[in-house]
Amino acid sequence: MKESKEALLSHMNDSDNIESDPPPAYDKPAPKVNRGAPLPRPPPLNLPVLNRLRSQRVILASQSPRRKQIMSFLGLPNLEIIPSNANEDLPKSLGPFEYVLATATKKAQAVYEQEINNEIKGEPALILAADTVVVDPSTGNILEKPRSEAHHMTMLRSLRDARNHKVYTALVAMAPLASARDPGYAIESMVEETAVRFDSEVTDELIMAYVRTREGADKAGGYGLQGLGSILVEKIDGSYDNVIGLPLKATLKIIETVMQRAEDDDEMPGDDGEESEDE
């Protein structure tokens, strides 16, 4: 494994013979990579909940292109991308689990309040929000996006030296109720956890070569598992797409659950299904 990674490093960083442009700055978006023509997609899943949603408004409250791509596998033609305008200013003193869940909930509720009375498009049938954090194994703190090349190097060295770290993604799904029953919506949430193990044989030279690609500059934790960042990782335990930002299996499950609750709100908690004597 070490030899293959060093060979890749030599190919990536053969700067002695080939002149190249300097990498983009950290305050600029990561460069887009043309990965060629996409592979043909299989037919969409023939599931009742997805079939119903294909004729309704579905909102992904995220501007992440990776989450949009993963959601596209569900074959929802009316999927809208409406990022939340809520401030992500919750205190980092919260534990990672609490922080990521509260942030995703805040995103979903902000978009719900914005779109529920949309007179032009009508109310959405489903709003899905997500938030992903990488946890520093040495301190238990949430890792931010790298602020500079030096910070990026330090972050990845720390992850390599610690070997193991965890990635959490919170999912929050909201759907308007068929009735006007308070609070007017069904909501479901969950947090998916994946353990990631970095390769101890990754050298500082390889880390620097990766950092200079800037692929991980816009990502919490400083690496992208779906791209070149995979050369830093030995293995994962859990959902691969959870590390990317949206665990598809869990997403489908939470969609099925919240849509069932919205359509059958007689069974919602706090309602015994009996009519009031005053009615």
From TrEMBL:
Claim: Nucleotide-binding is one of the keywords in the record: no
Q: Which UniProt keywords apply?
A: Hydrolase
List every stretch annotated Disordered: 1-47
Instruction: Please indicate which superkingdom the organism of origin belongs to.
Output: Eukaryota
Task: Give this protein's Gene Ontology molecular function annotations.
Answer: nucleoside triphosphate diphosphatase activity
Report the Pfam families cross-referenced here.
Maf
Cofactor (UniProt): a divalent metal cation
Q: Which residues form a coiled coil?
A: none
Designated name of the protein: Maf-like protein
**Protein's organism:** Penicillium vulpinum
Upper classification of the organism? Eukaryota, Fungi, Dikarya, Ascomycota, Pezizomycotina
